[in-house]
């Protein structure tokens, strides 16, 4: 079986990536499955740098082909913020997802709506020999002032897909797995993964 390490400690991302990759023929492995405890500092200046750094660190530590992503929410009215810093977008120490959503809405107050936005994901696939492959995915929408839905994580409850009139948090998992930025990036990653496993005879 072709083992693929999901290179993240974020439980929400692990669950989403497992769902997206479940019928691809790869044996999905999490850091917990192999007792790998690894924290990688995300100090890159691009999504690609952060994703590559994480994927390479996990590939070197595990000896397995590793897939990591870096993603962010870019809001036009905030000049593209929080972007790369989406997971750390709050002045409050130890902030959680709800704190970050509240801080974003506070910063948007008074700015003309609709608040156009996009979710972006860059996926890095790293081979233990140091080789890295990159793919991307984008999902367009807008930020709304009131939270809706109980699914997903992060900014999902305030990110509206206008053509469906649903937030990302209101989508069924199968809908999200067709439309989200991470889903689109994974779709682009699957043929790359198949080629890597074929070339490396894994």
Summarize the structure.
With 202 residues, the chain is α/β, with parallel strands linked by helices.
Key phrases:
about 200 residues; 7 strands; 7-stranded mixed β-sheet; Maf protein; 5 helices; alpha/beta
Number of helices: 5
Indicate the overall shape: globular
According to CATH, the fold-level topology is Maf protein
Number of strands: 7
- What is the count of structural domains? 1
Describe the strand arrangement of the main beta sheet, using strand numbers: 2-1-3-4-5-6-7
Average per-residue pLDDT, rounded, comes to: 93
CATH class: Alpha Beta
The secondary structure category is alpha/beta
Low-confidence stretches are none
Terminal Cα span: 8 Å
Specify the helix fraction band. Answer: 25-40%
Describe it for me?
This protein is α/β, with parallel strands linked by helices. 32% of the residues lie in helices and 24% in strands. It has one domain (2-199): Maf protein (Alpha-Beta Complex), CATH 3.90.950. The chain contains five helices and seven strands; from the N terminus they run βαβαβαββββαα. The chain has a seven-stranded mixed β-sheet.
Give me the secondary-structure topology.
Layout: E1 2-6, H1 11-21, E2 26-29, H2 47-62, E3 65-75, H3 97-108, E4 115-126, E5 132-143, E6 159-161, E7 166-167, H4 173-179, H5 181-199
Helix pairs in contact: 1-5, 4-5
């Amino acid at each position: 079986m072709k083992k693929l390490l999901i290179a993240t400690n974020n439980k929400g991302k692990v669950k989403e990536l497992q769902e997206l990759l479940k019928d691809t023929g790869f044996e999905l492995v999490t850091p917990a499955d192999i007792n790998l405890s690894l924290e990688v500092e995300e100090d890159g200046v691009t999504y690609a740098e952060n994703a590559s750094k994480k994927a390479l660190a996990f590939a070197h530590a595990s000896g397995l082909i590793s897939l990591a992503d870096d993603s962010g929410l870019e809001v036009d009215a905030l000049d593209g913020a929080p972007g790369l810093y989406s997971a750390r977008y709050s002045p409050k120490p130890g902030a959680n997802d709800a704190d970050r959503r509240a801080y974003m809405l506070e910063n948007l107050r008074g700015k003309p709506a609709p608040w156009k936005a996009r979710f972006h994901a860059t996926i890095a696939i790293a081979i233990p020999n140091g080789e890295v492959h990159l793919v991307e995915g984008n999902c367009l929408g807008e930020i709304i002032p009131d939270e809706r839905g109980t699914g997903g994580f992060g900014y999902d409850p305030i990110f509206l897909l206008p053509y469906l009139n649903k937030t990302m948090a209101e989508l069924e998992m199968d809908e999200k797995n067709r439309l989200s930025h991470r889903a689109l990036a994974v779709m682009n990653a699957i043929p790359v993964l198949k080629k890597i496993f074929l070339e490396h005879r894994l």
